[in-house]
Amino acid sequence: MEKADIVVIGAGVVGLAIAAKLSKANRSLYVIEKHNSFGQETSSRNSEVIHAGIYYPTGSLKAELCVCGNRLLYETCEKHNVPHKKIGKFIVATNDLEEEGLQKLFKKGHENGVKDLKFISKRELEKNEPNAKAKCALYSPSTGIIDAHSLMKYFEKKIRENKGEIAYNCEAAVISKLNDGYEITTKEITGETFQFKTKVLINCAGLNSDTIAQKAGIDIEKENYQLKYCKGQYFRVNNSKKCSLINSLIYPVPCEHITGLGVHATKDLSGSLRFGPDVTYVDRDNFDYEVDVSQKENFLNSALKFLPFLSIEDLTPDTAGIRPKLQGENESFRDFIINEESNKGFSGLINLIGIESPGLTAAISIARYVEGLVKKGL
After folding, report:
1. For residue range 229-239, what is the model confidence (pLDDT) as tens digits?
2. What is the pTM of this model?
3. Where in the chain do CATH 3.50.50.60 domains reside?
4. If 0-12 CB within 10 Å is exposed, 13-18 middle and 19+ buried, where does residue 135 land?
């Protein structure tokens, strides 16, 4: 039977980052991905924003890994020519209550280690974004945008250069605990099955990470590992002149429980502009990636609060994605789960569950964190 030192399940941006970090010439590593290529789910259906780490509770993994990941991601992009741009972000307040929210965000961001945040007045905002409307704003210069596909392509290339193997169209069907690791039965798209053993099993299966944990033997109900699916839709601005009317990312003050960051204006590297995502919890056994055209007016009304130059004719349905959330609708904050499961009787199993935003920004710092967990088990 084939043997491996490490198996990573899932070739999203986080799984690839981990595999790229852990792959070495003297270590056998395999990545198993059920789709025919990398990043086919959450990793390719997001805002492609490099976050600063402002929003998350101080001391949480989301906060710490985002702040560290922001720096590491920019360094990696510069060194390896991954397309990106540090265009900055304005979080805008349109009334007194939202201004209070900005004060709280500024404090939280500073406590999280985001030291470059700056409060700016209405007049200062108008100098930078003359077409935006707000009472005041919080400016984050270290927020940017990235080509997520190119980043994943870089990780994939690094894995292969380090003699790691990636098996696409290959699903982990059965996982059995052994005395010295795990036996995995995979099922390929052809229907063929294959068994092999691994010392360390890293679950980065995204939307299916709770299912994989369950297959490995974890009681996901007892451990509160069950995921909720949350759909986010985007509308694109089809008027090129209006796309050029803003230069940065512009976000509203987010809702209290950070279910989402609000319908925000996001530029991409081509200069296009889109709005989203919204927040809608969906049935995980019955969802699609279609954009509900009837939501166009709601998107417009959200955007008009701070970008009054838009009209209904400017918006075109773009894309949608599904977030793998641990918190349900109107529930309080849940952090990333990144656990080595020895204390549950599953030595060598590392579960990553609920890796939603800021997972893209934090991918490299998550990989470093997981490397530390792996060193304890190898």
Report:
1. 999 999 999 99
2. 0.96
3. 2-44+149-224+333-377
4. middle
